[in-house]
Design goal:
By secondary structure, the chain is α/β, with parallel strands linked by helices. The chain contains 20 helices and 15 strands. Helix content is 41%, strand content 15%. The radius of gyration is 22 Å and the shape is globular.
Amino acid sequence: MIALLNPKSARWKHRLPLSILSLGAALEGRYPYELIDGNLDRDVSRTLLRTIRDKNCEYLGVSVMPGPQLAEAIRLTQEVKAAMPRVKTIWGGYFPSLHTEVALNSGFVDYVIRGEGDRALPELLSGNLNAPNLSFRDGNRIVHNPKASATDTNQLRPLPYHRFDVEKYLNKTCLGSRTAVYHSSFGCPFLCGFCAVASVYKGKWMGRDAHSIVNDAIAMRDRYRVNAIEFVDNNFFVSEKRTAEVAEGLQGKGIAWWGEARPDTLMHYSDSTWRQMAAGGCRMIFFGVESSSAEVLEAMDKGGTQTPGMVLGLAHRMKQFGIIPEFSFVLGAPGDDAGRDIDRDIRYIRRIKEINPSSEIIIYVYSPVSFDDAPLFQKARQFGFEFPKRLVDWLEPDWMDFDLRKNPHTPWLRPEHIDRIMNFERVLNARFPTVSDIRLRAWQVAVLKTLGSWRYRTGFYRAPYEIRFVANRLFKYRQPEIEGF
Ligand code: B12
């Protein structure tokens, strides 16, 4: 028996934990398992220890994203190891896929599965130490088994939804009153140097066929009265044909949807696909824009055909089709003049807002991702950047902030650079409160706008304490980049 744990990762809007749910699908009928979701369990330590003891679990599998989930994963894995040292611990997900050796050197993680676990986990549990994607300690050395070829997403087994009370995971969002999540592809065909997905999937992308996505979506609607779906794929829109077929299949089905994309991919879509997307329920798309500078995009290995001008065209085009763009930026990449780059990005964001005021803007501060092949990561290293050597060091408050891409350990960024980014973000969010925080009342939106307006108009972003006080303390403003919308 294995207990599969999704440590707490969000304070609200809990989504179905697809990582452990898809591992459950791979094990269903083959190997006994229990799923535990720390997002909903108020006393997860107790549930975990009791489950492992009562069900006599030999293994604990933990899904680990960086950030607060990592802190929980460390705490809970240590607790289990201390109470029951015989239990073998397996970590999977993005953090251990990128920091495999640090995890295995911790003394409390026995196995790491890098990338997809659907094939590797059943093999490991059947005792096969040659399982693909598996890493483990063998005496003093660490063994990294080769990666399996990309997962054929069409061969994946149905998710065992019956293992959860799905009702608890259907959220009210700006898309609909009963929003579910769905994952239809692994990886991404691009190799952006700041991106964990590129580092883990090395430019591979494998997507489920449109008809099975549509069938699954309709089944969720019929079974759980789902009326909105977030396609949480890293890059949902890779294939125009697939997108058009999904949109056609969902037309008139009462399901609004959202997904993540690259600006150039969607700029190359035809008008007829865009019309089909709008008619088929697509309401909002998240784009990785990253920067306003062609040189920075090149330094980031963004690839493709994206240019700064293209994104302005995209903002305009989406206005015509009535689909809201969420434009995400990575400010503060290593360069010779970080201050100049940040100011240029700020001007560019303002320009986007002029063209399409409904554009949502999401700002991250560049935090290096472990990606040895990427020149951007090499450059960060030249500036003296280093990841923590010990797993527990990730619990330091500074490294937690790093994970949330808010205050990184990045030597090329001085405190005034970070302040400039944060202050601008605060003023921008006040002037244009996000539509994704549906709890904000009309009067709260009006107060925020009033506070943000004069500062935004005059470009005076410095020390916006009054906004911070009102937004954080009084309204508990949610930042979509940390908790999702
Ligand atoms: C939904 C989501 C969230 C949700 C949480 C979801 C949840 N259920 O708890 C929210 C919004 C809270 C969130 C927040 C953050 N997220 Co997030 N999130 C995602 C997203 C969009 C989908 C995750 C998912 O369901 N995937 C579908 C499943 C099937 O895939 P999977 O999780 O990769 O699981 C497979 C393998 O990884 C592996 N596996 C996973 N776990 C395990 C465990 C074991 C034991 C084994 C054997 C295998 C295994 O097997 C699975 C099946 O093949 C991913 C992007 C993506 N498409 O994956 C980003 C992603 C994981 N998030 C990411 C990040 C960085 C964050 C944040 C830390 C920061 C931020 N600013 O975004 C925050 C903070 C999190 C926290 N509080 O700790 C990054 C991680 C990359 C990295 N740098 O390491 C991703 C990849 C987004 C990205 N492209 O950058 N996130």
